[in-house]
Amino acid sequence: MDDIEANAFVHAVVRDWKSAPLTDVDKALCQYAAKLTQSPTSMSPADLDQLRKHDLDDRAIHDATQVISYFNYINRVADALGVEPEDFIPPWGK
Q1: Per residue in 6-61, pLDDT tens?
Q2: DSSP E strands: which ranges in 30-80?
Q3: What is the pLDDT of residues 48-78, one digit of tens each?
């Protein structure tokens, strides 16, 4: 995949991961991440079973949960404290 294709892929995922050209396991991980982010109290063992159906073992599920949770945590900290984006990071799409 060249830079242009990679950039188009990233934009497709950001725009709408549900219609992006993701593998089934990546779509399952995105669905899990969305639910954990948007309604964490509604998580259940069935969510883990759905990931296991895609051959993810408990270690992979644990690692994904840690990464998803960390990004949720650090974004909330930054939002709460009014942290400004780094000026060396260009705004999205530029």
Answers
A1: 989 999 999 999 999 999 999 999 999 999 999 999 999 999 999 999 999 999 99
A2: none
A3: 999 999 999 999 999 999 999 999 999 999 9
Q: Domain count for the chain, please give it.
A: 1
User: 50: domain CATH number?
Assistant: 1.20.1290.10
Q: Are 50 and 21 in contact (CB under 8 A)?
A: no
Report yes or no on 1 lying in a domain: no
Helix %, strand %, coil % of the chain (to 5): 65, 0, 35
Q: 85: which 2 tokens?
A: 């984006």
Is residue 5 included in any domain, yes or no? no
Compute the distance between CA of residue 27 and CA of residue 86 in angstroms, rounded to an integer.
30
